[in-house]
């Protein structure tokens, strides 16, 4: 159990023995080494600005807290240790491709869109024209990226026959941009004969692009959110689970008619003590499952508050209303959940993480909404 978890669960403190100070200083030296490595990673382009800034602040807070505890000679310095949190920060701020658009250079017309490429054409066309003008005037202008509404980033990659535009959840690290350029080179090489002979039939093209659509599983604690994710992603169910601290992540490819969609599934902690953390977890989500426990009327009553909290941070996100634990005697009337879903214009799905009933349908509904269907 981490020190952070002990504090959240109400663990007490005791005076810091003198013998513990060398170990504390040794740990602080390791955190300083992590900061140095963080700077190297940013300089090398392997992490983006948001990852660097949040990780740096996280390490600095940890150092200050431990130093103050050592200086005061009170409390267990290990209660301030937050090892493992840095992995969550990196994942939370990682740029994920939501979708792509490929435009012909000669005609200026779109060839294909992949994933969820939802940008107002009134904004997109002037940006593309401006980018092309700059590329034509500046030899080797190359790739560009720019921030757009909602904290998302739009990347432009030029090619001999086409221009690739990629929509990311957050700012893209330089190494990711290099990978994007490589993908576009592969696309143009694999399709060079077709691209060189307009008009181009998009149905005959090969697309090596990968994209991930972010979805969130939200609702009160103990409604079975993590169990639903594990049942779908791992085919497992455990009747006793440790509560989620902050957020957990899973990735799963969902097969839809005619295509496959890769979901980044964010399982968000439901307890009130985590509310201050959650807004950052919602950003960039395309679809959200509002989960309640059919044996707990209070968990259903809280769904409206969950929806309001999420809508503030993830504008445009669509919802699925999920009643879980159908294997147990139902207390919450089904018609109320159906009316709530109808008011949101959302699908309503009944599930049991224990038996697996309804779980595939829940995630297929999320995938459809995230993909814009």
Q: What's the pLDDT, averaged over the residues?
A: 81
CATH superfamily of the largest domain: P-loop containing nucleotide triphosphate hydrolases
CATH class of the largest domain: Alpha Beta
Which fold name is given in CATH as the topology of the largest domain? Rossmann fold
Uncertain residue segments: 1-14
Strand-residue fraction? Answer: 15-25%
Query: Termini separation (Å)?
Result: 42 Å
| Secondary-structure element string | HHHHEEHEEEHHEHEEHEHHEHEH
Radius of gyration: 24 Å
Number of helical runs? 13
If strands are numbered along the chain, what order do they take across the biggest sheet?
Answer: 7-8-6-9-10-11
Q: How would the blueprint of this fold be written?
A:
Blueprint: H1 3-8, H2 21-44, H3 49-72, H4 85-92, E1 97-104, E2 110-115, H5 121-137, E3 144-147, E4 153-158, E5 162-168, H6 174-190, H7 192-195, E6 212-218, H8 225-234, E7 247-256, E8 259-268, H9 275-282, E9 287-293, H10 297-301, H11 303-313, E10 318-324, H12 334-344, E11 348-350, H13 359-370
Parallel strand pairs: 6-8, 6-9, 9-10, 10-11
Antiparallel strand pairs: 1-2, 1-5, 3-4, 4-5, 7-8
Helix pairs in contact: 2-3, 3-4
Protein described:
This protein is an alpha/beta fold. It has three domains: 3-92; 97-204, Beta-Lactamase (2-Layer Sandwich); 212-370, Rossmann fold (3-Layer(aba) Sandwich). It is 42% helix and 20% strand. The protein has helices at 3-8, 21-44, 49-72, 85-92, 121-137, 174-190, 192-195, 225-234, 275-282, 297-301, 303-313, 334-344, 359-370, and strands at residues 97-104, 110-115, 144-147, 153-158, 162-168, 212-218, 247-256, 259-268, 287-293, 318-324, 348-350. The protein has a six-stranded mixed beta sheet with strand order 7-8-6-9-10-11, sandwiched between helices. Strands 2-1-5-4-3 form a five-stranded antiparallel beta sheet, sandwiched between helices. The longest helix has 24 residues, at 21-44. It is flat. The two termini are 42 Å apart. The relative contact order is 0.10.
